[in-house]
Fold these 2 entries.
Entry 1:
Amino acid sequence: MPGLSRTKRRTFLKTLLAAGVAPFFSRRSPASEAEAVRISILHTTDLHGHILPTSTYEGVGDVGGLARCASQIRQWKAENPNWLLLDAGDIFQGTEVGFRTRGKVIADCFNALDYDAWTIGNHEFDWGIEPLAGVLETTRMPALSANGKFEGRKAGAIDSRSPFSRLQPGLIKKFGGIRIGVVGLTTPGLPYWLHPSLTGDFAAGPPAEAAREASAALRAQGADAIVLLTHMGSRPEGDDFANQLDEVAAAVPDAAVIIAGHTHRDIPSATLGGLPYTQANYYGINVGRTELFFDPSTNKLIRTEVSTLRMDSAIPLDPSVLSLSASKLEDSTRILSAPAGRLMEALSTRGGMANPSDVERLIATAIVSALSENRTPIDAVLHGLFSKQDLPSGAITIADVWQILPFENYLITAELTPAELREVMNEVFTRGRADRNLMGLQVKLEEAGKYPGVAAITDSKGQTLDPSRRYRVAMNTYDAASAGRRLMRLREILAEPAVNQNFHAVQTREALIRFLSKHGAGGVSKTDLLPA
């Protein structure tokens, strides 16, 4: 498709897909199509610990899961002995079974399926550096991150005594005389989602130059084609702090394909910087297949075909994956169905700017309770909602708590002046945003303006805060790291020594479970919660 703009090229490809025509990218025509050597690259991404079928964000059920992907992968392997099996990251965080086994249930499945490599994603660090080290020790295949460093050393040059010595910039797999090089890249957005206590001595630098260097090194080792396996995704508006694939494509213009992840999108076929691009959704809802065709006389890549396939009920669950994980999945079902506590009345998720919802107040109260057990008194909690589903009165299970708090976040405390609190809340409420609130103290808004700012912050009795005093505020590690660059002023304030920032090894979900359990059969009512 020479001469077409990126937009027109994508439109053309969508037309082909709608017509049922397999997308392809031709480099040159072989002397005989029948003589071409075909190498299949099978790929998953953003599994997030899902072994069994799950639901899409839109509520479509009975789709995805690694057990379904495994069945399709085995079928494709049987069709072509020349295959690589790859994953583009975020492999184990996101389910109770992944959390409880510290990711090792997914590592065991990857071993059983003979994955060739996986790329380090950002959610690999949600539980800290030690669980990731345990997964690296468990998986037989290398983890890739050409832009990753541990203790200041690049992947591939890390002390052999460390589990992170398993981290490599790339690999080469041979198919007769043809060599495929795979370069892995980690999103550089880690510092803006994760507290330094979680990432430890790991850092992910700029990906473009790392991709160029790693690709050149693999070419020097004889690689005939380069596959870029990235825990980043293409964005319609172009590169951002976390997804820098436009730069990567420009840095490695001769790559055979970009296999992407992170942004949870199904992109069967597209182009990026003239390179074939594909992404296999999330939770195993789609699995990807990339076909590379080579001229056997020259080992030159002549064509690339990319596609993804929906993992719906037509795809059976793989018996070996089910057998391998059966006992752990049964334990997970039992744990999730167990009661966590009781609500004496329904709690709403409806709220707004400076108007915390019942569920926000429930989370905040649980955080105050957990930190008080650690002898850390709290003046206020900054937190928001992940779910917009109201909570009915009655029994609440562990599974319900997972719906309220689906991510593992630890707690940060910091001591802020009234002026700093006002700055933070003005940033939180930027352009009328109401996805977080401050509880324990009262925020009063200006009366005028389309996007009213903070007029004052008072104590729970409406009294003006003491300007000479610092107030201890609790928040989760995600927000403290900037919430993906949405709270950069908060991040700057927390970096000041005077705020006395402290990391607490208390997870928000565990705090809520303990709070509900502590109230027992008597249950939790609205009067037990921090005031609105």
Entry 2:
Amino acid sequence: MLLQILRQEVLDANLELVRRGLVLYTFGNASGIARDQGRIAIKPSGVPYDTMSAQDIVVTDMNGRVVDGKLRPSSDLATHIEIYKRFPDAGGVAHTHSEFATAWAQARRPIPCFGTTHADYFHGEVPVTSELTAEEIATDYERNTGLAITRLFDGLGDVKIPAVLVAGHAPFCWGATPSDAAHNAVILESVARMAYFTIGIATDASPLSRTLHDKHFLRKHGNQAYYGQAGDPKR
């Protein structure tokens, strides 16, 4: 029963990416994890969103072996697994090729925090990974993509930035649930677009001050958060 609920949550997260215009055709994928059961539910590879049902969502173990489902899981499954291993609080992962966030990834540039919209969700610039070597691409590419994300965040320390740009590829986002991961992907695309236009208006634009950045992030996410209503996980 719990896995059926997770499958529906993952389907809903995938469809949210479509509703928000973050994916084209079969691009992108979202997943969710049941950590107590060691199970991951993820979009099947190459299946059109408009025909997909909850039963099409593939369930695997933490090693990527299919344990329930007739379809092949997303080819990005191994990347999702490494993200789940690195971030124990992550309950969902969303991967898109959304236009503006992907443009920053292709430019191999992190997204600076120019304003408070960015600061509300990401406690720092959205970072970009190093490029994979030819050997990493040729052998176990998807897992090595996840390991590049892991290495990046190991170097950054305990930062609260539930998103990353994979150099030359596209963004991955995560959150407490599949829905939260999709939500963060939508916000990431919005701030990526605003950052692009900010630089177009003023090439010498400066990042938001650390004081204001901290204020906006911590009023939503800190121990003394006061934005929104009590009990609301998104506050």
